[in-house]
Amino acid sequence: MKKNLPVTDTEHLLNEEDMIVTLTDPKGIITFANEAFIRISGFSKEELIGTSHNLVRHPDMPEAAFKDMWDTLKSGQSWMGLVKNRCKNGDFYWVSAFVSPCHDNNRLVGYQSVRFRPTRAAVKRAEHLYRQLRLGRKPRLMHRLDPRNLGTTVRLMVALSFAFSLQWLYAWFVFELPKTGAFLSAMGAIILTPLLAWLFSGKNRLIAARAKKVVDKPLMTLAYMGSLDESALVAHEALFNKAKISTVASRIHEISRDSELIFSQMNSAVDQTLKGVDQQLDKSQVVANAMQSLSATLRDVARNTGNASAAAQQTEISTRKGKQVLQGSVLAMESLAAEVTRASDVIHRLEGDVTSINHILDVISGIAEQTNLLALNASIEAARAGDQGRGFAVVADEVRSLASRTQQATQEIQQMIEQLQTGSKEAVKVMSRSEQKAREGVDQVSLADKALDEIAESSQIISTMNRQVAGAADEQLSVAEDVNAHIQHLAELGRSNADIALDLRKQGDELHAFSHSINITAEQLQR
What we know:
Strand order of the largest sheet: 2-1-5-4-3
Main location: membrane
Distance between the termini: 39 Å
Membrane topology: Multi-pass membrane protein
GO biological process, one term: positive aerotaxis
Family: Belongs to the methyl-accepting chemotaxis (MCP) protein family.
Keywords: Cell inner membrane, Cell membrane, Chemotaxis, Membrane, Methylation, Transducer, Transmembrane, Transmembrane helix
């Protein structure tokens, strides 16, 4: 067996109210340790759980004691004994241990050990006995008597009483004492005392035999009681039964205490749940209101989007109409530009014709000058001819007058042609500018036509997007209504949960009262 070292001579005494509880699996591995065990042993909970219970075994404990314990437990019986345990730092403490197997549906699932503070007298006897066992000596089981020994003692006392009664009887006969009440009492004692002694001794033999079946552990009986007679066996059995009841009561008390803690935590959790449910209901109402507002907003969005889609479609139609008008304007402006171009060409040709007329007028002016010159020469010649040339002079004057008017008319025509040339040049300039403006107008109308195409396309896209937005808004409205319905359902569930929590708290209060009653009963069992 492994020895847990080091050890010291420092003892830790358990308090009167201390109860150490541990649970192990069938192999002795610790699965549960209460706070008292953790505090007294010095080990942490993490160090204890999952570790063999041998961790606290003290080297002074004889192997025979643990062998007896395991043999008893494996036979399905409970075991009670005095045990010296080692603390983590090497100190020690004594306990009176009551170990019992734990079953679940008739299947062994582990062992339960409940330990209390032993008496100092029992500790001293156990130290003496365990020391002898460690030294290899067989302890003297002093005062060990046969179960019939108590009856023998009683019979001896009865015999003495009977002899004493015979002496009284002999005295009454010899000295002829009056047969008074004392005489009758003596005779009754002679007859009844043996009968009562026989009954008493038989009953004690039965009690001792029954006690021996329960606690047939001479070593532990001697350690606890200090002797092995019938009274010690009966007292050991009583102590064993008390330990069994105390173990059950202590476990009930601990479970009740844990239950009260759980109930307190449960009530706190229920209060938190109620608070959370109230907050949930408030939040659900806020969300429900928000969802209703969202639903209304989505309806407005869907309606406005539908209106926008209709407006976009109308814009597209108007744009297409405007495009048709612009296309007509483009054709008209292109026709106007062509007409302006043709007018410009005509004016250019007119300007050329005016130039030709100028040339002709120059010729006519030259002819008029020559005619005037010839008329002058004719007048000169007519003057020389005298009367014979008078008629020719008249003709020459007429010719000169005609040439003069022709020259004057030519000058007037020349002025008019010059004015016409000036006007035609201005007209050419205006027509050129008009043609340029017309072409610029055609270009602008073309750009406007393209812009209308883009507007129409954008309107179509906007209309499509509006239809999509309207569809999405309808879907979101449907989803929002579903969410709102779910929120209302959650609110109903929250109210139902609140009712359940209230019922749970009421049941918890009832269980708490029941647990408190169990705790009181357990305390009464321990007394």
